[in-house]
Amino acid sequence: MNRKSTAWPPSSIVLITAGILLAGTGLYFMILRPPLLPEDTRFMGMVTAQLDPLRPGLDAWLTQLFRVMGGYVLATDVLAIALAATSFRQHSPVAAMGALVGGAASIGWMAVVNFTINSDFKWVLLAMALV
After folding, report:
1. Is the dihedral of CA 63, 69, 75, 78 positive or negative?
2. C-alpha closest to that of 28 among 127, 103, 130, 125
3. Is there a contact between 12 and 85 (Cβ–Cβ < 8 Å)?
4. What is the pLDDT of residues 64-75, one digit of tens each?
5. Would you give the end-to-end CA distance of the chain in angstroms?
6. pLDDT in tens, 27-48
7. Angle between helices 122-130 and 10-27 (to 10 degrees)
8. How many alpha carbons fall within 13 Å on the CB side of residue 91?
9. Is the N end or the C end of the chain the one with fewer CB atoms within 10 Å?
10. What angle do CA 34, 111, 129 make, to 5 degrees?
11. pTM, whole model, 2 decimals?
12. Which runs of consecutive H residues, i.e. helices, occur in the chain?
């Protein structure tokens, strides 16, 4: 009798774990992230008071921007979880390449940019990228 293995390979478990972590990041951007963090004004070399005249419009725009970005992060990671549970689990080379390229283009690039701007979250993002 030729039975398909139902065991979950460690690679699929790791990809699912990474997908869940990053889906949480997407939800953070969609629901919890404030329009401006202290690191944002620090990067721009400004104090918050300098932005006060722009804040109502700027805050509204950035809130929408982060909702969209969070939605894309969440969607990407739902797809990563689905990939891990299907083709990746079956050791498909195309699925492995997709996971590698997708991870590099998403959380990998996010970590690089956060190091470039000296973000307070750079090490957390790097740790997530390494998963």
Report:
1. negative
2. 125
3. yes
4. 999 999 999 999
5. 37
6. 999 999 999 999 999 999 999 8
7. 150
8. 5
9. N
10. 110
11. 0.79
12. 10-27, 38-44, 48-51, 55-85, 93-103, 109-116, 122-130
